[in-house]
Write a structure and sequence with these properties.
- Strand 1 and strand 2 form a beta hairpin.
- It is built from eight helices and 22 strands.
- It starts with 15 loop residues before the first helix and ends with a helix.
- With 423 residues, it is α/β, with parallel strands linked by helices.
- 21% of the residues lie in helices and 39% in strands.
- A ten-stranded mixed β-sheet has the order 2-1-5-8-11-14-16-18-20-22, covered by helices on one side. Strands 3, 4, 6, 7, 10, 13, 15, 17, 19 and 21 form a ten-stranded mixed β-sheet that branches. Strands 9-12 form a two-stranded parallel sheet.
- The protein folds into two domains: 362 residues, no CATH class; 54 residues, no CATH class.
- It is globular, with a radius of gyration of 21 Å.
- Helix 2 packs across helix 5 and helix 7 packs antiparallel against helix 8.
Length: 423
């Protein structure tokens, strides 16, 4: 740490007053903004020599965050949401505020429209205490609104909840989401980061599942131009509960996703299937830390990278099985396809096991398109460019085809083809 810079070098302490008075309607939030700002002054900036942060321009992202934050302006409501499904519940984040069309169901509320401030304050306090990371701290500095989704016991919600983050040019935005599933409940959420230009989006997601509940969570991060996209996801899973997480990340100047999972209940499970497809000089970084804390827990991680041009990707996955977590199953895989001689990938899967009664595996591979397969396809009368596209699509399809929700599978596939420039 002695060689690491501290964030204070990228900040102007004289800006403390402006960052601790951004909330006028809910002035009590300013205390959290100020506290987080002061803590950041002494926080070290992770070095890109660290395996978890390889190729990650985190200093540039933090610097841009504060530059954009000081210049944040309230802009008119304008966006293009061309993927409307009538059965979906749509919620938008824009200008630091969540808003929606029509009336929200009882299980969804936002800090701005709620009168129950202690409810939200307890969530912010608990979230900051359990997730003391750089991304969460930055999020709290600009926290102005929060979305809460909380089911009741035995509540099965069929409608998809679509959360659309709408960045605008020269902005720093910090959406924050809390998801709590009560006993024997289920829900489906689609979080969509639309394309932005010259912005920083820093999101924080806190997920809690009580026993016998199920969450399907879909995350789509479109290509971010001259922008940074940072996210922190903290997930706690109770007994006999399951989270299925799908993610497609098209890259940004810095695209960074931290996923921390606690499998706290017996027979709890997490399935994460993800594609990252940066091109040009974009970046996509993925850090996962999974703790198996109970008996019969299961984790399945399948990450696939498709990297083109001079892009860079990172996969850092650590699965820890504690000594009392017998009958654990943990599988972690990272496969990467490099479409250019200039594309770079850093991959490090780690298993830390303290119990013998387990079934655990990990693997990591990186390589170019198979020349023999290309030759075989060409021998069937298909041109070389089409042959390459076919192989790339086949590689990605192993993730896309795991999505059982028809609309989500179509949405992810369409954006994948767009990001890979495949018609």
């Amino acid at each position: 740490m002695a060689n690491e810079r501290i964030i204070k070098e990228l900040m102007n302490p004289n800006d403390l007053d402006s960052f601790s008075s951004i909330n006028q309607e809910n002035a009590w939030l300013n205390g959290y903004n100020k506290e987080s700002y002061l803590k950041l002054l002494e926080r070290p900036i992770p070095s890109n020599k660290n395996e978890e942060w390889r190729y990650t321009k985190i200093s540039e992202a933090v610097n841009q965050f504060f530059l954009k934050a000081k210049g944040n302006k309230t802009l008119p409501y304008e966006f293009n949401d061309d993927e409307s499904f009538d059965d979906d519940i749509r919620i938008y984040f824009y200008n630091g505020t969540y808003f929606h069309q029509g009336e929200l169901p009882a299980y969804i509320t936002t800090l701005k429209i709620s009168q129950d401030h202690p409810y939200f304050e307890s969530k912010i306090y608990d979230g900051n205490k359990s997730n003391d990371c750089l991304i969460n701290a930055l999020n709290t500095v600009l926290l102005t609104d929060m979305l809460s989704i909380e089911t009741k016991s035995n509540q099965k919600i069929d409608k998809m909840i679509r959360i659309i983050n709408l960045s605008h040019k020269d902005s720093a935005l910090c959406p924050r989401i809390s998801v709590n599933l009560a006993k024997n409940s289920s829900i489906k959420i689609f979080e969509h980061h639309q394309s932005s230009e010259s912005s920083v989006l820093n999101s924080n997601i806190d997920i809690q599942l009580e026993e016998n509940s199920t969450l399907d969570y879909f995350r789509l991060i479109e290509k971010q131009t001259q922008s940074h996209d940072l996210s922190s996801q903290k997930i706690n899973i109770g007994e006999n509960s399951r989270v299925n997480l799908f993610c497609l990340d098209s890259g940004a100047d810095t695209s960074r996703s931290n996923i921390d999972v606690e499998l706290d209940g017996d027979n709890s499970a997490i399935n994460i299937n993800a594609l990252f497809t940066p091109s040009e000089a974009l970046h996509s970084g993925n850090q996962l830390k999974i703790n198996h804390n109970a008996k019969g827990t299961k984790s399945s991680l399948d990450f696939r990278g498709i990297l083109d041009d001079s892009s860079a990707g990172v996969f850092f996955g650590k699965v820890k099985v504690h000594k009392n977590s017998s009958q654990t199953t943990a599988n972690m895989s990272n496969q990467n396809l490099l479409l250019s001689d200039y594309a770079k990938i850093s991959t490090k899967p780690i298993l830390e096991i303290y119990n013998d009664d387990v079934e655990c595996s990990h693997s990591a591979t990186s390589g170019n398109l198979d020349d023999e397969k290309i030759f075989y396809i060409k021998s069937r009368g298909i041109d070389e460019e089409s042959a390459k596209k076919f192989l790339v699509q086949s590689f990605a399809a192993k993730i896309i085809n795991k999505i059982t929700h028809a609309n989500m599978r179509e949405t992810f596939n369409n954006h994948l083809l767009k990001s890979l420039k495949i018609n």
